[in-house]
C-alpha cells in the first residue's frame, strides 16, 4: 500500500530527493512540512520545533533548494520561504 504524502509535501519528493540517504530525507521532509505550515519561520525556529540542530535544517534547506522544492522570496530578514508543490 502506498503511503499518502504529508500535507504540504510535493508528491514527487522521494523521486527528487532519491540521491540522499533515508535519514536525511526524513529530516528534509519534516523541514519542508514545517515551512509549508509557516513560511515566515527562520531556521532556528524550525530547529527548535523539530528538535534537530540548526545545521541539520540548513543542510536540508540547501538540498531542498537544489532540487527545486524550496525557494526563498525576499530578503534574509523579512522574506519568506516558498514551498513548491
Largest sheet: 2 strands, antiparallel
Q: Please give the number of β-strands.
A: 2
Low confidence ranges: 1-8
The amount of beta strand, in percent, is 5-15%
Q: pLDDT average, as an integer?
A: 78
SS summary, helix count: 4
* Total separate domains: 1
CATH topology: Arc Repressor Mutant, subunit A
Helix content: 40-55%
CATH level 1 name: Mainly Alpha
What distance separates the N and C termini? Answer: 23 Å
What Rg, in angstroms, do the CA atoms define? 12 Å
Query: What is the CATH homology-level superfamily?
Result: Winged helix-like DNA-binding domain superfamily/Winged helix DNA-binding domain
How does the helix and strand content classify structurally? mainly alpha
Order of helices and strands: HHHHEE
Strand order of the biggest β-sheet: 1-2
Q: So what's the overall shape?
A: globular
What's the architecture in CATH terms?
Answer: Orthogonal Bundle
